[in-house]
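Hi R.,

Here's the chain you asked about this morning:
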Amino acid sequence: MPKTSTEQRDWIAEAVRLVEADANRSADTHLHVLPIPTPGVDLYLKDESVHPTGSLKHRLARSLFLYALCNGWIAEGTTVVEASSGSTAVSEAYFAGLLGLPFVAVMPSGTSPEKVALIEWHGGECHFVEEPSQIYDEARLLAAERGGHYMDQFTYAERATDWRGNNNIAESIFEQMGAERHPVPAWVVVGAGTGGTSATIGRFVRYRRFATRLMVADPENSAFLDGWRRDTSDAVTTRSSRIEGIGRTRVEPSFVGGVVDDMLRVPDAASIAAARWVSDRLGRPVGGSTGTNVWACLTVAERMRAAGEEGSVVTLLCDGGERYAHTYFDDDWIAAQGLDLAGPAAVLDHFARTGQFRGSVRDASVA
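And here is the predicted structure, written out as tokens:
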């Protein structure tokens, strides 16, 4: 028997309560100092790996579910479908399970087995495609076939989050920086997968009238940098990013280039070498996108040093490296990808010894 409107509203009200309660049970994520030998420059990592589902995408999934619930797109029994390279799907599987909803993740066949296992552990189903560019159409088709809802993180990420505040990641960063010697960051550095995080931070700093500049670090085979340089949304690439969670073959609808002050191409070998370098300094593994962020941060720090500037640089520790034991931390996988980490590792070693970062976006082997 179909649910009445009142019954559906009651279910949605309870679903919103459950999602909000998840947020209330969680303390804010930590802001770590990562010591670097650059005089006058302080580097901080916002540790998003401590969320219940282990990544930055927990924030996004919560916002997407609230957005869909309050728009009336999800009701009791709705099958939720998402196109995702992994971490968003893990987090959405968690929230779907919280609400008792079926969840299907449409993802490239090369997604790390650790992420697949996490999605299935949370009760989700994984649906694989061979070509990463197929995930969008396949997710729409699957949602239609099952009478479900395609969450579409790539379209709705930038609008599902309240960029003015309301406990978003930007507000959290600036509150936690309040007692530091450079409380207003000179730069915030992030990667882009949907573009939602960069849009939130970029809008927030403008709204609050901070002088902070925003850099987006883009991995190889990603369309964002070219689209930003040419101020167009039709930039595409033919290969997918090897750095899971960031980099896309197209400029996603949620990417707001107008709030980005600078972008930097980071070679995949540099991203992975930096992830291992940071892991050694923190005493625990971090993911490849964190390596991308840190490589870009060290580039920013070198520019500041050369210009005689002081200040703070903040970036994100997006997820833990445990999810990449069979990829970024597996030397056989590295060799199979044709990657050589020796060059960027030498750059990082030179930086640690001298305080001079001699990395190049054109040639990561410069040492």
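One quick note: The first strand starts at residue 31 and ends at 33.

Cheers,
M.
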